[in-house]
């Protein structure tokens, strides 16, 4: 099976985890109803490959448009559409089947770069759809049977700070290094003074001390009968103190200040990366975080087991050019209102774990699988 077929199989399976009667719900107020994503993945491929690259005639122009783009509304401007504004599932499925037939027929004739865009776009949505599904009521989703994975774990202990010497951080990539999105180009370099960085991510247990001092509890926590629970993908569990805490950028930043430290910059993340193996909790193997504690030398889990917030505002590298076929991928988000995240989560596809990949979100957006670690200069 080729990469696109594998990615399709994955997203098809993901959509089947939603009970049919819940597909028109909107578990996250700032995002579209779930039915949108079922149409969006095919509409994106069709608009990119059929329409843009090959100029084929539209066979369902209103769906091409309706399902073209997701949304990222500024705070206070939530979408107001109703379930009845969206087409029936059968109509979307008919459109999707036709798109796949056409794409399979045409894909051999489009440049490799556009094929990669289609695959990675779909796999990114496999993660964003997972975090939307996370917010759907438990009785409206169907837990898949998965063989349980064993991950290295450990017990509690202080987070050691690891020194990183001064030097150049190389960010982004060159075309010779392979496919990347527009914001990964051109490759750039920046001198970074020495600093120390947490050997591991900040855990629920550590963040709990902050909450006991009066900070608000993170979005993924719930208090029941005086005890804290983590709202996992399939059930609530007693707060796993050894696992990384999922927080917003604002919460991560506040915690770091409380500890007399700060978040790493994007360049510092790059200086620290490369010394460390990725966490095994990546590429859809698990649904929730595993322990932040690992045996072994160096800085652990900079990649995997949760994205890591940086203090860097998402901005282009010098010489940035948007992809002409997808101008809205990065450029609209260079608005000073989004922060860079690095690494990857349990629900990040293997191909997106490359060091140059950049993720970004608004600083108070609480739904994503985002963790952090501390830095001191
Ligand atoms: Fe998309």
Outline:
It is built from 8 helices and 12 strands. It is an alpha+beta fold. The longest helix is centred in the first third of the chain and has 23 residues, at 112-134.
Number of strands: 12
Globular, elongated, flat, extended or rod-shaped: what is the shape? globular
How would a crystallographer describe the biggest sheet? 4 strands, mixed
The ordered string of helix (H) and strand (E) elements is HHHHHEEEEHEEEHHEEEEE
Q: Report the average pLDDT across residues.
A: 94
Strand percent estimate = 5-15%
Q: Please give the share of residues in helix.
A: 25-40%
Number of helices: 8
Rg, rounded, reads 21 Å
Structural class by SSE content = alpha+beta
How far is the first residue's CA from the last residue's CA? 48 Å
Ligands bound, unique? fe (ii) ion
> What kind of assembly state do the chains in view correspond to?
single chain
Q: Within the largest sheet, what's the order of strands?
A: 10-9-8-11
Low-pLDDT regions? none
What labels would you give this structure?
single chain; 377 residues; alpha+beta; four-stranded mixed beta sheet; three-stranded antiparallel beta sheet; 8 helices; 12 strands; globular; binds fe (ii) ion
Overview of this protein structure:
Helix content is 28%, strand content 13%. With 377 residues, it is α+β, with helices and mostly antiparallel strands. Strands 10-9-8-11 form a 4-stranded mixed beta sheet. The chain has a 3-stranded antiparallel beta sheet with strand order 1-4-12. A 3-stranded antiparallel beta sheet has the order 5-6-7, with no helix packed on it. A hairpin with a 4-residue loop joins strand 6 and strand 7 (236-238). Fe (ii) ion binds next to helix 2 and helix 5. The site of fe (ii) ion (FE2) has 5 residues, from helix 2 and helix 5.
């Amino acid at each position: 099976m080729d990469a696109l077929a594998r990615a399709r199989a994955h997203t098809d399976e993901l959509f089947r985890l939603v009970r049919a009667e819940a597909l028109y719900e909107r578990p996250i107020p700032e995002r579209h109803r779930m039915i949108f994503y079922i149409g969006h993945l095919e509409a994106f491929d069709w608009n990119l490959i059929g329409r843009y690259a090959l100029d084929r005639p539209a066979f369902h122009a209103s769906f091409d448009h309706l399902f073209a783009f997701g949304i990222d509304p500024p705070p206070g401007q939530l979408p107001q559409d109703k379930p009845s504004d969206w087409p029936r599932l059968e109509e979307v499925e008919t459109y999707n089947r036709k798109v796949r037939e056409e794409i399979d027929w045409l894909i051999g004739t489009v440049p490799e770069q556009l094929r990669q865009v289609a695959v990675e776009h779909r796999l990114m949505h496999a993660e964003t759809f997972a975090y939307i599904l996370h917010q759907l009521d438990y009785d409206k989703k169907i837990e898949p049977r998965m063989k349980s994975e064993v991950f290295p774990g450990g017990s509690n202990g202080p987070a050691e700070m690891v020194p990183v010497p001064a030097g150049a951080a190389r960010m982004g990539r060159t075309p010779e290094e392979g496919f990347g999105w527009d914001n990964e180009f051109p490759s750039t370099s920046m001198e970074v003074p020495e600093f120390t960085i947490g050997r591991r991510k900040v855990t629920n247990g550590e963040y709990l001390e902050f909450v006991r001092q009066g900070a608000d509890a993170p979005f993924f926590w719930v208090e029941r009968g005086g005890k804290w629970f983590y709202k996992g993908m399939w059930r609530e569990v007693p707060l796993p103190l050894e696992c990384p805490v999922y927080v917003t950028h604002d919460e991560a930043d506040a915690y770091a200040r409380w500890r007399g430290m700060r978040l790493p910059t994007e360049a510092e993340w790059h200086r620290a990366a490369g010394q460390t193996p990725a966490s095994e909790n990546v590429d859809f193997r698990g649904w929730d975080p595993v322990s932040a504690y690992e045996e072994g030398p160096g800085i652990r889990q900079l990649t995997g087991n949760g994205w890591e917030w940086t203090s860097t505002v998402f901005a282009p590298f010098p010489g940035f050019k948007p992809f002409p076929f997808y101008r809205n991928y990065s450029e609209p988000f260079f608005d000073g209102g989004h922060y860079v995240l690095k690494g990857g989560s349990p629900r990040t596809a293997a191909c997106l774990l490359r060091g140059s990949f950049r993720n970004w979100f608004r600083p108070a957006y609480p739904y994503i699988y985002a963790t952090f670690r501390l830095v001191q200069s």
